[in-house]
Amino acid sequence: MSQATDAFVWENQERFLDELKQFLKIPSISTLPEHRPDIDRAAEFCAASLRKAGLENVEIIPTGRHPLVYADWLHAPGKPTVLCYGHYDVQPPDPLEEWKTPPFEPSVRDGNLYARGSADDKGQMLMHIKAVETLFAVNGTLPVNVKFLIEGEEEVGGASIAKYVSANKDKLKADVGLVSDTALYAEGIPTLCIGLRGLVYFEVTAVGAGRDLHSGLYGGCAPNPVFGLIELLAKAKNEKGVIQVPGIYEDVEPPAAAELESWKKLPFNEIDFLEREVGACRLTGETDFSVLERIWARPTLEVHGIAGGFTGTGAKTVIPAKATAKVSFRLVPKQDPEKVIASFREWVRKNTPDGLQTDVTVLSASPAVVVNPDHPAIRTAAGAFSDILQQETVFIRSGGSIPIVGDFATHLGIPTVLMGFGLPDDGLHSPNEKFKIQNYYNGIMTVAHFLEQYGA
Amino acid sequence: MSQATDAFVWENQERFLDELKQFLKIPSISTLPEHRPDIDRAAEFCAASLRKAGLENVEIIPTGRHPLVYADWLHAPGKPTVLCYGHYDVQPPDPLEEWKTPPFEPSVRDGNLYARGSADDKGQMLMHIKAVETLFAVNGTLPVNVKFLIEGEEEVGGASIAKYVSANKDKLKADVGLVSDTALYAEGIPTLCIGLRGLVYFEVTAVGAGRDLHSGLYGGCAPNPVFGLIELLAKAKNEKGVIQVPGIYEDVEPPAAAELESWKKLPFNEIDFLEREVGACRLTGETDFSVLERIWARPTLEVHGIAGGFTGTGAKTVIPAKATAKVSFRLVPKQDPEKVIASFREWVRKNTPDGLQTDVTVLSASPAVVVNPDHPAIRTAAGAFSDILQQETVFIRSGGSIPIVGDFATHLGIPTVLMGFGLPDDGLHSPNEKFKIQNYYNGIMTVAHFLEQYGA
């Protein structure tokens, strides 16, 4: 069976690549209103591809912003249902002058396909559709039930899909989610991501005087909300990077010993990581933990900026009436976002400097997600991955957040297979984004194998 | 003599007011390039007024940006020379919708003239010219030598005049400067400002990683320059507002006992000041010092904002490669800006958090200025002021900086009489800026009396 699907992919390589190129030519930049017609064209491209693959009930679903695309095929009674997710929107291509070839004119160089969206996420999403098309072509049927839900707002917060998932639990009912929007740990290493950190993002506002004051005329006696936020937030972490907000570490669940052991086997080199990826003079943070633990399994607190006074070019001597800091926490398994929110609010209240009034607004909150590597879908996916790349599959986590995975867990009660075929240097969100063409074909084959074996 | 000049001012009230209105109709906004023709018209208005008053050698001096206007009259041998300064440029009028009458259509209500620039500084600058015109008209001559230097960049940093003063010391040689760009301490109280704080304005840049990083993927091990600046700057002051940078207080010269005594007699009410002017829940700072000492005679450190990461609307999870804080110190007499710069640089170097590289840039540096109240020009000005307002003149300081006063002191070696006729609620830089019309006439009479008595 599998050899037949592999053969079909090999025979259709050129066509599959051409179709991806057509998709990549649509500049479906979700954040720019002038690209709204391109958003619609990209949604229609998805719908047409789904229909062509053999899926049914294809619909373009209007939302408050950019449309969702849904399709399904539910004729495998007694077999599990896989909910495939992807997004057809892309980041803006700026700075344009740094692209070697135009971002929306896909170009092949050294076995890579260069274009905005090639890896994130058009190429990876199309893999799912082409895998289904392959299975239909070879077998005339599918080994499992499938549902597709594709969005056009991933790069702008994904509000519509979150709402849709929570409101359509029955329609979207499935046994497992499948998302290809991540990368291999390194070239050639089959990789499943089984943990994502959560995120709570705050705005902390401090108010001092009733109006902006001149720092000459009032400096020395008027409360300065910018400095007040600095005083406050400096207390939030100690010099070793340990968060000082009470209770933050209370519920933190450390990774199992076996998982920690497996991380040690990854080809991770701290000096390479520092020099090639981070580019700072040294790494920082909780030195009692390994670097991978710090970024995958420890909560963090970051401040992203303090505005309200003056942050433009040159000098302005203002003591602003109000200042705002952007503060985020990354969360790890078992941390409850609501508890973190309450702790932080209380801590801000207690530590607000004299003369100021502070207010904490929550801009987003999502818990960490972990998937049990012994879940049948994960075990099957690991096997299919190893088949194609001829190496043992590694299980990693990511320090980032993929909100849809949390939505699937919360609203549908299902785990998600995070099976990504990108590479760490694909340049997502950057100029010269690329997708290795062989990984596109490998992805189609791996997804087809996974669906076959999961249905078996 | 004085009675004759007073009478001339009374007789010419209407004309003097009309001329000010013509001047105020020119929207000479120095920061907006589209108003460059208005800048030129305003400079020409000054030149014409100076010629009409009887001054000689009137010239419009081109600079790298907006022109200066110069004039003199030097036919009083053996008498002192007074260098009159003012500026013809104004702040932008935004927000326009808050003006009761349009900013460049001068409008009289309740004895006030409402227009952008009425008090800051067109009205006050024109007082000098009208005083000279009055003296010429009444006496056919002037009691002292006078020079006028008027600029069009006061609201945008005043770079051209600073350069011009340092390059034209002989041409501008004088015994005393005269600036009317301040306010009475309160309605009806003749006020001379005899001290200004200095200012050193820094940009502190911290660099961490080689590029902007995703706070999910790297948070926990990558240095965050925004948080690093917060950690650093929080150490710059203790909770009582005392600056912790070594040596900052070393050279601070406290005001003389007599000056401190005189401040106690000012009609200053701390509760009024807090509620009406500052509008915060409480005043802050060094509680061992009175409020007036804190704002007039103590050094301060303020942070105006931290940029580089994200300070826009909503949430962005970035650990920026680089962040910049705007930091300023106000300086008091005897503090050497160069010494403060060196101390701050050294302190930043020593306290830079691990993983970051910091750099300190100086955007501006000017020392504090104090004038001896026993200087003959100050004593004479105080007398002339008391004559007109029929009250004892008070001597105050200002916590702000007027760079031209420092330039006159540094390059010409002269003190400056800061004789302002505005009121604290004139709304400089705000909508509905006004100038009390009676104070315009009082100003013309006071300046005329001052010049007469100073020449006597």
Structure description:
- The structure is a homodimer of 456-residue chains.
- By secondary structure, chain A is of the alpha+beta class.
- Chain A folds into 2 domains: 2-196 and 369-455, Zn peptidases (Aminopeptidase), CATH 3.40.630; 198-252 and 299-366, 2-Layer Sandwich (Alpha-Beta Plaits), CATH 3.30.70.
- The first copy, chain A, contains 15 helices and 18 strands.
- The first copy, chain A, has helices spanning 2-11, 13-24, 36-53, 118-139, 159-167, 169-172, 215-218, 225-234, 257-264, 270-278, 291-296, 337-351, 376-389, 403-412, 437-455, and strands spanning 56-61, 68-73, 81-87, 107-109, 112-114, 145-151, 176-179, 191-196, 198-207, 213-214, 300-307, 318-319, 322-331, 357-366, 369-370, 394-398, 416-419, 434-436.
- In chain A, strands 1, 2, 3, 6, 7, 8, 15, 16 and 17 form a 9-stranded mixed beta sheet that branches.
- In chain A, β1 and β2 form a beta hairpin.
- In chain A, α2 (13-24) packs across α4, α4 crosses α15 and α13 crosses α15.
- The longest helix of chain A has 22 residues, at 118-139.
- The radius of gyration of chain A is 24 Å and the shape is globular.
- The N and C termini of chain A lie close together (11 Å).
- In chain A, 55% of the residues are buried.
